[in-house]
Write a structure and sequence with these properties.
Layout lengths: L1 H25 L3 E3 L2 E3 L1 H21 L8 H25 L4 H22 L8 H12 L4
Antiparallel strand pairs: 1-2
Helix pairs in contact: 2-4, 3-5, 4-5
């Protein structure tokens, strides 16, 4: 029964996203005063902002004790699941989810690497650096 409820919830969310997409696609370029607003660009920017807010919490592994390999495997599974769902959702609203995902992951990894570089790490490598390296290997930027 749990699968039915989960599938129904997913179908409901997909229907909502599809209706939103249809409404946005029917909207034309609007003028608000002297400013022109493109609804598709507005939707894309909103999705990008939400992705940028959600990804750092997915990358936070500080509360997951255990061997590094187990932590990275869990991180990989979590990110792959979220990535598939994100790209699936983007296909329904006619947005290139692959590029958006790659750009946001790249931005976060570079930001984390710069923060670690500014801390001037001692010769002992910190756990956070291993996570950054692991994420870079999971999602190469090329």
């Amino acid at each position: 029964m749990a699968d039915f409820e989960e599938n129904f919830s997913l179908a409901e969310a997909t229907y909502t996203i599809s209706n939103l997409s249809l409404g946005v696609s029917r909207m034309a370029l609007k003028k608000v005063g002297v400013v022109s607003i493109n609804p598709k660009e507005l939707l894309e920017e909103g999705i990008r902002r939400e992705l940028a807010l959600e990804l750092p919490s997915l990358l936070n592994c500080n509360d997951k004790p255990g061997p590094l390999e187990d932590v990275l495997n869990h991180l990989s599974d979590t990110l792959q699941s979220f990535r598939r769902a994100f790209i699936y959702m983007c296909e329904h609203v006619d947005i290139n989810g692959y590029d958006m995902w790659r750009e946001e992951i790249d931005s976060i990894v570079h930001r984390m690497a710069n923060e670690l570089k500014e801390k001037k790490l001692p010769t002992v490598v910190s756990f956070d650096l291993h996570i950054v390296i692991g994420v870079m290997s999971i999602f190469p930027s090329s």
